[in-house]
Amino acid sequence: MPQSAELEIQISPIVQESLVHNSKTLYNLQSLTASLFGVAAGILGLESYNGFLFYIICSLLTTTLFYILRVAAPSSTTSKSSGIFDTSRYFKSSSSINFEFWTGGLMNGLAGFILTWTLFYGLVRA
Amino acid sequence: MAQAPVQTIHRDPQLFYWILFPITAVMILTGILRHYATVLMASAPKQLDQKTMREQRSLLHGINVRTNFHTLSRKSFNARRDALTAAYESGAYLKDPERRGQAPPNPMSDPSSMEGMMGMMKNQMAMVIPNTLIMSWINAFFSGYVIMKLPFPLTIKFKSMLQAGVATKDMDPRWMSSISWYFLCIFGLQPVFNFLLGSDNAASQMAQQMGQMGPQAGQMFGPGVDPDKQFLAEAENLAVIEHYSVLDGIENRLLQGIKA
């Protein structure tokens, strides 16, 4: 009989397809909202630092809302939740706080954000 | 000049209608076109005959039993192990039982792997050609003026790349020509393609897929490997396993779970 950690994984195995589906959902959401935030930043006429700050804040806000509305509620009823920011039920992470979940959206959406930001900045400012 | 004055250039508002929107529309449409062209041009997967399929699948079966043996009870695991080992050692699954001791065919001359390579090259061509065409079209028709201003500042070095047709020294690098709008679009339209075409579209993630597909196909189905040796190695692996099951001691776990 192996040790209890390995046995835990064998009793409730991690399905690769579900993990991939979860991360794809998160990726799609973050890309789409990043493009929309670009539109907002362009219309508001934000310049360099303000624009990027706006992007970071709104992207983190989106991820927090996603967490609150989708990930937190079922996770709190299982017995394994560690603290208030636990995503281990839906996403596989290498450390206890899942940095990829919270900050991955910044890198993914950056291109879409800059594109729509530039477009609408040019259109509205005229 | 202590603080560089903000350079505003008064531009014709018709500039947007005649330049920005056409370039964006063309790029989105060629992306969609490329995706559908790839879908239509993809050759149907090769149909293997039954013996080859049986050879490959039986090896996979052995590997799966070895990896997931803990989900089986002892009796079913032993039954599988005995059946598979007997079949492996007698060569019942082999494609050509007469050629048991001989070397496998040369991978270069074996025609089954050539089609895989042609498929990858076709995908690469489908990606490169439209991009080159669009870039030359933009350089021909849209060069010589700046279109828009980037919201954030850049260093001077970017000027040579982003202000291709306009040779001024003092203009802010924030002003870009149309070729730089083209570059922005390449990177920034990938979320749009994801949104319009679903996630496995062929228009954007080519570069990532190229890198990932390379090292995977080698190990067991490459024609250079001898299946008989693989079977014997697998039989030995199966014989070595010390079996335990997740069903052992399950009554204690259930009782403990209820107790709390």
From TrEMBL, chain A:
It is found in: Endoplasmic reticulum membrane. It is a multi-pass membrane protein. GO terms for biological process: autophagosome assembly; protein folding in endoplasmic reticulum. Keywords: Endoplasmic reticulum, Membrane, Transmembrane, Transmembrane helix. InterPro entries: Emc6 (IPR008504), EMC6-like (IPR029008). The chain crosses the membrane at residues 27-46, 53-73, 101-124. Pfam families: EMC6 (PF07019). GO terms for cellular component: EMC complex. Belongs to the EMC6 family. This is ER membrane protein complex subunit 6.
From TrEMBL, chain B:
GO terms for biological process: protein folding in endoplasmic reticulum. Keywords: Membrane, Transmembrane, Transmembrane helix. The EMC seems to be required for efficient folding of proteins in the endoplasmic reticulum (ER). SMART domains: DUF106. This is ER membrane protein complex subunit 3. Belongs to the EMC3 family. It is found in: Membrane. The keyword Membrane applies. The chain crosses the membrane at residues 15-33, 127-148, 179-197. It is a multi-pass membrane protein. The lineage of its organism: Eukaryota, Fungi, Dikarya, Ascomycota, Pezizomycotina. One of its GO terms (cellular component) is EMC complex. Its main location: membrane. It holds the Pfam family EMC3_TMCO1. InterPro entries: EMC3 (IPR008568), EMC3/TMCO1 (IPR002809).
